[in-house]
Specification:
The complex is a heterodimer of chains A (446) and B (166). Chain A is α/β, with parallel strands linked by helices. Chain A folds into 3 domains: 18-229, NADH-ubiquinone oxidoreductase 51kDa subunit (Rossmann fold); 238-334, Roll (Ubiquitin-like (UB roll)); 339-432, Up-down Bundle (de novo design (two linked rop proteins)), CATH 1.20.1440.230. Chain A contains 19 helices and 13 strands. Chain A is globular, with a radius of gyration of 22 Å. Chain B is α+β, with helices and mostly antiparallel strands and 166 residues long. In chain B, helix 3 (49-59) packs across helix 4 (63-72). The longest helix of chain B has 13 residues, at 152-164. The chains are: A alpha/beta (446), B alpha+beta (166).
Chain lengths: 446, 166
């Protein structure tokens, strides 16, 4: 059995209540942190743990914390990014819904470590029912003295505010999130200055993902070294994977980083294999933004070794043969899936979600969607594939925020690995637009 | 120029609005904008110009600051909508699970296209992007309720249930 750090108690009846969570050892990290540790000692443990940002960027959390500016007399803020919107990703939704106190506890110890007295949890507005669950949990924790003034007699004060978003993927980008939290359109900011220097209300701010913050309680209780002992290499600890698509058992799974992709897909403990009677065609391993891989490359590195669920192994081979762990949005495609249709679908998503500030993204995502739409609907031109590659290259790296890259990579990678399928749509429009028609040419199904 | 206020929060919602505004630091009351727009929509079913002007006055900001936000985010209905707004996920993972076919059935069942409201004013259909429930697709949302693992039959049941609601 895999080590469970976040989800060990998730199926305990009543775990969403303070009392049951407490019975299972909850809030001991708050006691330990506030009574026996200094903020710097906590930052040190999180650094030692090597935990990397679980929202998708994978930036070391302890390092991010250590960049926080601490000018005299200026408030500092911790903001939890619960704007989970990356297609294929639903782990934070799952965690907050079932075990809200895990996030609250993490927010308390993290806020203490950063010297924040008011912290925010920014939740996508569609999850209003989860916001109500979190608010109830906060009220319980406050009633028990774990939030509010002078927590556990330590002299430390903390107020937690849950903020709803309004429906915008871009607000998952941390500076867009801060703009939104200030009551504005979610337009990402130019950097520098980084939020660690000028964030919310122009004050020093740390923005961390739900899953990242939720790990801190375990790290406080068990030590950073114990956390770093789990996983593989620089991919320490566990990761929540959101599994969707054509597997037997979609759902959220906590895995130890370093698990072979093959085991995750086929073992009964996790996805339980491809749905019966079907073959494995392609994988998006880390949310819709990351490069799509054909089945053989998803399972195996160029040197023939098994590919692992880790930051390094998934990106092995660069974009030529690799991908990224991203947010852990694991979308599996069987042979009935049309890659062209899916790529068009993802392009429509990015076009819809572009904030419109940077012209390469605003215009480029629209062009990619338009060209993919015509290929998928039987009106593709011979030069369209090259045109898509060209447009994607002109977006990538040319925008304020990573949404541009996120829009470019799915298109570029789908063409890189499934070019024949695009060509088939252009060459055989009548056949390709029949209901349920899928390219059945030469490709490596597993 | 702002319109005369024909719309205002009920006393309960006004109390809630004041509590929300008090969450933020002094002078940062604009942070309450998104929550107050949700509150207005919960009360009125949509966010009208009158409603937005009322919120602008409450937060001491310009009406345009409210309009630009209400139209940027997808959740705010700036046109009147039906009693039940069905927000249907159209993104990749849900489509892999048959989302397109179920959506076609839903349109047929309601005799409307996306963006339209049924003639009896009961249902508005919107297509939305990923709702973060990909392992349970196809999915749609009506207000705060998620409906998962949709099939044509399940959609019929849900529409029947919602139609019966007073």
């Amino acid at each position: 059995m895999t080590k469970k750090i976040l989800t060990e108690h998730i199926n305990v009846p009543g775990i969403d209540t303070f009392d049951v969570y407490r019975q299972q050892g909850g809030y001991t990290a708050v006691e330990k942190a506030l009574k026996t540790m200094t903020p710097d000692e906590i930052v040190e443990e999180v650094k030692k743990a090597g935990v990397r940002g679980r929202g998708g960027a994978g930036f070391p959390m302890g390092m991010k914390w250590s960049y926080l500016a601490k000018p005299e007399g200026v408030p500092r803020y911790l903001v939890c990014n619960a704007d989970e919107s990356e297609p294929g990703t639903f782990k934070d939704h799952y965690l907050m819904k079932h075990i809200p106190h895990l996030l609250i506890e993490g927010m308390i110890v993290s806020s203490f470590a950063l010297g924040a007295n008011k912290s925010f949890i920014y939740v996508r507005g569609e999850l209003m029912y989860v916001i109500r669950i979190l608010e109830k949990a906060i009220a319980e924790a406050k009633a028990k003295g774990f939030l509010g003034k002078n927590i556990l007699g330590s002299g430390y004060d903390l107020e937690l505010v849950v903020q709803p978003g309004g429906g915008a993927y871009i607000c998952g980008e941390e500076t867009a999130l801060l703009e939104s939290l200030e009551g504005k359109r979610g337009n990402p900011r130019n950097k520098p200055p980084f939020p660690a220097v000028k964030g919310l209300y122009q004050c020093p701010t740390v923005v961390n993902n739900v899953e990242s913050i939720a790990t801190t309680s375990w790290i406080i209780n068990n030590g950073g070294d114990a956390y770093a002992a789990i996983g593989v290499g620089r991919s320490t600890g566990t990761k929540l994977i959101s599994a969707s698509g054509h597997m037997r058992k979609p759902g959220v799974y906590e895995i130890e980083l370093g698990l072979p992709v093959e085991d995750f897909i086929y073992a009964d403990e996790w996805c339980g294999g491809i749905r019966p009677g079907h073959k494995f065609k392609a994988l998006v391993a880390g949310g819709s933004s990351v490069p799509i891989l054909p089945a053989n490359l998803a399972l195996t590195l160029a040197n023939g070794e098994k590919r692992l669920m880790s930051y390094e192994s998934l990106s092995d081979g660069g974009f030529a043969t690799g991908t990224m762990l991203g947010s852990g949005g694991f979308i599996l495609f069987d042979e009935t899936s049309c890659i062209v249709r899916n790529t068009w679908n993802f392009s429509r998503f990015y076009h819809h979600e572009s904030c419109g500030q940077c012209s390469p993204c605003r215009e480029g995502t629209g062009w990619m969607e338009k060209v993919l739409h015509r290929i998928e609907h039987g009106h593709g031109h011979q030069h369209d594939i090259d045109l898509l590659v060209d447009v994607s290259k002109k977006i990538e790296g040319n925008t304020i925020c990573p949404l541009g890259d996120a829009a470019a990579w799915p298109v570029a990678s789908a063409i890189r690995h499934f070019r024949d399928e695009f060509q088939w749509h252009i060459d055989h429009p009548t056949e390709a637009t029949q209901p349920g028609a899928v390219y059945r040419g030469e490709m490596a199904l597993v | 120029m702002t319109t005369e206020s024909t719309i205002q929060f009920t006393p309960e919602r006004l109390a809630e609005a004041k509590e929300i505004i008090a969450r933020y630091p002094e002078g940062r009351q604009k942070s309450a904008l998104l929550p107050l727009l949700h509150l207005m929509q919960e009360q009125e079913g949509w966010t009208s110009t009158e409603g937005m002007d009322y919120i602008a006055r409450m937060l001491d900001i310009q009406p345009i600051e409210v309009y630009e936000v209400a139209t940027f985010y997808t959740m705010y209905h700036v046109q009147p909508v039906g009693k039940h707004v069905i927000e249907y996920c159209r993104t990749g993972p849900c489509c892999l699970m048959g989302g397109d076919d179920v959506l076609a059935h839903l349109k047929q069942r309601l005799s409307i296209e996306t963006g339209q409201t049924t003639v009896d004013g009961q249902f508005t259909l919107k297509e939305v992007e990923c709702l973060a429930a990909c392992g349970m697709g196809p999915v749609f949302q009506v207000r705060e309720q998620y409906y998962t693992h949709l099939t044509n039959d399940r959609v019929d049941e849900i529409i029947d249930e919602l139609s019966k609601q007073a």
